[in-house]
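Reopening this one. Same input as before:
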Amino acid sequence: MTRAVRLPLDLPELTFTAAGESLVRRSVLPSGVRILSEAVPGARSATIGFWVAVGSRDEREGTFGSTHFLEHLLFKGTPTRTALDIAVSFDAVGGEHNAVTSKEHTCYYAKVQDRDLPMAIDVLADMFTSSLLDETEFENERGVILEELAMADDDPADVASERFFEAVLGVHPLGRPIGGSPETIEAATRDSVLAHYRANYRPQDLVVTIAGAVDHDDAVARISAALERAGWDLSVAATPVPRRTPADPPEQGSPLVVVERPLEQVNMFLGVPGLAAGDERRSVLAVLTSVLGGGMSSRLFQEVRERRGLAYSVYAYTPSYSDAGVFAMYAGCTPARAPEVAELMLAEFRRVGDDGIEPHELARAVGQLGGASALALEDSDTRMSRLGKSELVLGEFVDLDETERRLSLVTAEDVRALAEELAERPVAVAAVGAVEESSFAGLTVEASAS
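Same output, byte for byte:
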């Protein structure tokens, strides 16, 4: 495969060979269920995921945190399996199973040996379609989630990250915490979570992705049978839920958020609105992020840590969503050094836009990104996740060859121009530690005026 493969929602069957001679197949069933597989030569294990394009951004007022709450509850029992039965199914074969809730999707997944894939299909299908949402389990899990939120609140980096998203994205749904807040979890009711479940876990919402040792036709037959045993009528025709279309861009919230805590370090994020997931410049953004803060040779690491010894951890990253993104830089340092480190990070960011990057930086970034992509694909988890995001978010499948081709087309001028554009966007800072707002006020004021 030398180019991206489009994934139209109205195409029933699609088959192609990707880099490394893996075979990718996709079936869209009449019921709207979508099943994608990537058979990897020589693989002895498989990772399977059951996805829905529903995340924290889709919650209504009064239900914040319900998507993550529901994720927990789907492991707590069905009419045919207890919570212990579900756990034992995977533990008894040395498998892994878990789930993840993001801002735009939820995925329930398992990794097993190839011989245990039929079991994984049966258990995940049962969980996905037939969770009881038992009242007692609901109350027990409320306590578990409150503990999870408390654990996150004890982590200053987590707190800073959440507040940073609020600062950059404002009141936009993407700016909300995925897990909700203690107040919204305390207020959650079983009826509201059950309504969320019934409204969003339907055949036309379901995407199943499998990577590794998998026979596509067998997997489709087994998934269909498991869903029908659970009571789904797959003979009823339905169109897959359309992919998200870009909405109005977020408006910045408070440009400066400081949470004062008596800590040894200040954990801080600094950045600007970034690019949406489907932006054609995402390869350029990947190179920019790598040059600026993608490793030990990056500008931030060299300037802040190696030359000045101001921080142990410093990096850049760029989460993206269907209609928005964030360009973020992070550092943890002593409170007295926080203003200096923040100024250095912002200066390095702007310097890329003003002066560009060197040819050796471009070559190193392209090599780093291509190599990291290749190494990640040694794991069926990554391939399974790539299938899911290709189907739910991008609407196209991009293999390693195409990834490397797109990276090879990035020029130093592309990187400079994008950095210049991003540097003109409003800067937001979020910090947690023994500092005051006055330590950073000049950064956001200056950025807004630039």
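So the earlier flakiness isn't reproducible anymore. For the record, The longest strand covers residues 45-52.
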